[in-house]
Amino acid sequence: EDLFPNTPIKPITRTTWDIFGGPATFKSGLAGSFPEPIVVINFDRPWDYIRSLYPDKHISVLDVGVVGDMDEGTATSAYYMVRQYIQAAQQLESGTLVIDGGTQYWTLRKMVILAPKIRERAAKGRELLPFDYEVANADALNEMAHLSRSQLNVVFTHQAAEIWETDEGGRNPARSGRFRARESSAIPYGSEVQVYTYLARSSSPNSNEDVPWAMVTKCAFREGVVGMSFEKPTYDKLLPWVAPLVVDSEVVNSE
């Protein structure tokens, strides 16, 4: 008997995305264009406007609240409610899980997972050290691993932070004009596609309107698309470029 049989290739039916950008740059709007049913765990502004863009879609929203207003007890309750909601969503056979406000979710995770260490450091008049975050990052990475084994598309939205550059001596900081996502280090490791959203002039002739754009900053499926920008981005517009091998999960499940 062959102890190591050739493992069959399974069709790719889902992807994990990281969408980051400045305020009001269509991050949530792009997330709302993904396949339904869409389960949203929302740390950001209400989804009423996004739902109005896609009135025929099945979208379920859990509004978590403003993390900055939470004390430790409220944050702990909110964190485990979110985890239960994510576990329930993983039972779906298709659709999309959106963590809208991944930056706030990361803050909530740190508040809860690192609470003992925060109290320990505070008692000594100190702040957290870089290696203290390893536990929270490991928790996020474990969650990403479980999500990648589900049948759901997974979408994180994050705020953007500008990257500052310095000289060789680490002095004279200056704006680089480039941006990164405010997030756990586990998110870029676990995501397959990352896009940066921004507003810029429409490519339509004689138009003076600023419209949403999305630039691909990472793609595990096609390296050649990194750096490409798409006007008025949607899931259907981006997918053939960034993940052409992805097939409809409903078709696969019906076979």
What does this structure look like?
- The protein has 255 residues and is α/β, with parallel strands linked by helices.
- It is built from 9 helices and 9 strands.
- It has helices spanning 27-31, 48-53, 72-89, 102-113, 115-123, 134-148, 186-190, 235-242, 249-254, and strands spanning 16-21, 38-42, 59-63, 96-100, 153-165, 174-181, 193-201, 210-219, 229-231.
- Strands 1, 2, 3, 4, 5, 6, 7, 8 and 9 form a 9-stranded mixed beta sheet that branches.
- Strand 2, helix 2 (48-53) and strand 3 form a beta-alpha-beta unit.
- Helix 4 (102-113) packs across helix 6.
- The radius of gyration is 20 Å and the shape is globular.
- Mean pLDDT is 86; it is low at 251-255.
Note the main sheet. Answer: 9 strands, mixed
Strand content: 25-35%
Q: Class by helix and strand content?
A: alpha/beta
Per DSSP, the total helix count is: 9
Helix-strand sequence: EHEHEHEHHHEEHEEEHH
Secondary structure tally: strands: 9
Mean pLDDT: 86
Query: Ranges with pLDDT <50 over ≥5 residues?
Result: 251-255
**Global outline:** globular
User: Mind telling me the C-alpha Rg?
Assistant: 20 Å
Q: What's the end-to-end separation, in Å?
A: 29 Å
Helix content: 25-40%
* Quaternary class: single chain
What would a concise description of this structure say?
The protein has helices at residues 27-31, 48-53, 72-89, 102-113, 115-123, 134-148, 186-190, 235-242, 249-254, and strands at 16-21, 38-42, 59-63, 96-100, 153-165, 174-181, 193-201, 210-219, 229-231. By secondary structure, the chain is of the alpha/beta class. Helix 3 packs across helix 4 (102-113) and helix 4 (102-113) packs across helix 6 (134-148).
